[in-house]
Amino acid sequence: MTRKGQNLISYYQSLGRNYKTKFVRKVASQCDISSNAVLKWVFGDCKPSRPEYIDILAKESGIPAENLFNRSLDENIEFYTFEDQIWYRTEDGNQHHLTEADRDAMRFIIEKFREFYPEAFSKQVSMNTNDAKRISRITNIELCCGYANATSVL
After folding, report:
1. How far apart are CA 126 and CA 152, in angstroms?
2. What is the pTM of this model?
3. What 3 state SS string does the chain have?
4. CB count, 10 Å around CB of 91?
5. Distance CA 104, CA 123 (A)
6. Cβ neighbours for 62, distance < 8 A, ≥ 6 positions apart
7. Residue 3 near residue 11, CB atoms below 8 Å
8. From CA 36, how far away is CA 41, in angstroms rounded?
9. With the CA atoms of 43, 117, 126 and 44 taken in that order, what torsion angle do they form, in degrees rounded to the nearest 10?
10. CB-based contacts of 46: which residues, under 8 Å, 6+ apart?
11. Are 110 and 139 in contact (CB under 8 A)?
12. What is the chain's pLDDT, residue by residue, as a tens digit (154 residues)?
């Protein structure tokens, strides 16, 4: 099945826990690399160094190679809070609790925050987008406290 409207991270997030593990292990085995390397691809920390790895990812996920790392497909994510937790709904309607492991979703929120609230964002000068705890903290401030209050908190 071809999944034209998804990218690699949205595909991975749509999988159940056991299927996520199976997917990562299968790709790692076919590429003869570690599972951690595959997870770095999935979460956008880096991209495969060889074209054949991209072909394997496309084949195993059903996503066209040109969409695997297409970040513009993330634009259709809805974020909301429920019972003091941050959740997000993907374009396919699936709902996910936002955790520190959802680095791409948090980066997306932060980029939007940076774009629309640059003054509040600039107050967080030492931000490192690879630091999951800091991303989680800023994300919680943005969504739970509201953008208007974030300026004073940051």
Report:
1. 16
2. 0.50
3. CCCCCCCHHHHHHHCCHHHHHHHHHHHHHHHCCCHHHHHHHHCCCCCCCCHHHHHHHHHHHCCCHHHCCCHHHHHHCEEEEECCEEEEECCCCCEEECCCCCHHHHHHHHHHHHHHCHHHHHCCCCCCCCCHHHHHHHHHHHHHHCHHHHHHHC
4. 14
5. 22
6. 1, 2, 3, 11
7. yes
8. 9
9. 10
10. 40
11. yes
12. 555 567 888 888 888 888 999 999 999 999 999 999 999 898 877 889 899 999 999 999 999 998 888 765 455 677 777 777 878 777 677 787 877 767 766 777 777 777 777 777 676 644 544 555 555 555 555 554 444 334 333 3
The residue whose two tokens read 């600039």 is: 122
* Tokens matching residue 151: 């300026």
Look-up of token digits 């937790």: 85
Structure tokens at 3: 């999944």
